[in-house]
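Board work, copied verbatim: MutL_C domain-containing protein
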Amino acid sequence: VCVASSDLPACQAIGQWDAKVIMAVCRPHHQLQQPRHLLLVAFDQHAVHERVLLEHLAKRWSRHPRRRQCSRARLQSASCRAAIRFGDILRRRECAELLSLLRHCSAPFQCAHGRQAVWPIARLNPLIDEGKGDAADYILEALRSAVPTPAPISDSVSGPSSEQRAFSSTFLSDRELPSLAVDFKVCSDIF
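↓ predict structure ↓
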């Protein structure tokens, strides 16, 4: 089981897990004509934002002849320092925005330093009926009912101001995400 860059537009953010990972559901592009199997996919939030920032900086700096001398290592370092961090709490809308920006990147599955940024976690059986509505909401509710949720996270999180980082520090519209010990068919060939 794998996720291709052509699958990114079909990824729908569920939200954030453990203030480190953006969880999403995705129907692989090659399965559009097959039964409605979805993948549960994890995105390293720091690596994703770092990749988005690196490609934005590289494009912006390449337009200016004087700035072209800036080394790739300096751009990587700048994007790493400016990217959201583990522990930064994101709303579902912010998770979706990051995934939307990622789909426009030339190397969406690696951070600025080459680390892997995306992992397919589980193949979800065809649970979604056409009449169920939002697939992410349905999957989230299934996950929440299958596993006890952790203690709620407060909306008042201390940390950098909105000027210091790209996204505000709040929780996913007061939703808690369960741990990933879910009784779905885990794809062993991923690991």
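Residues 147-191 have pLDDT under 50 and may be disordered.
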